[in-house]
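User: Fold this one for me? It's 2-amino-4-hydroxy-6-hydroxymethyldihydropteridine diphosphokinase.
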Amino acid sequence: MTRLAPVNVSWMRPATAELYRYCIALGANVGSRLQTLTSALSSLQKIGSVERTSRLYETEPLYRTAQPAFLNAVVVLRTDREPTALLTELERIEKDHGRIHKGQLDQQYGPRTLDLDILLAERWQADGFRALSPLQTPRLTIPHPANGRASVCSSST
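Assistant: Here's what I get for 2-amino-4-hydroxy-6-hydroxymethyldihydropteridine diphosphokinase.
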């Protein structure tokens, strides 16, 4: 079997300190869903570079089904934020859009103005972006348990 020669990927190295690439799901099912997702995308652009966006798609809610359908999208974001710092930023963006957080039991799986989830994460290595080792903390799980939404991310690596 012939082996391919190593490829020089130094041209792919981020020009700035942006060392992480994330696949982030956006969803909204309360209020002006499209306006909310558009505004959230603008907020994400302030903390990194949005490399790719999916098409918008609508889904029925899971678990608590007596609520409006969600309007969703997935984006690939490159940033210098490590995972927990990015989660803090995402929670701030959700709060800025009127989100009541999951910590309040009555809102778990309930309607939300905005939901931002980190589906997948990669870190820059000498040979390009590589998936982070799985991460599980009380606040954050990567890859996200519902990472089936990450199809837009699979072609980004």
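One thing worth pointing out: The first strand starts at residue 20 and ends at 28.
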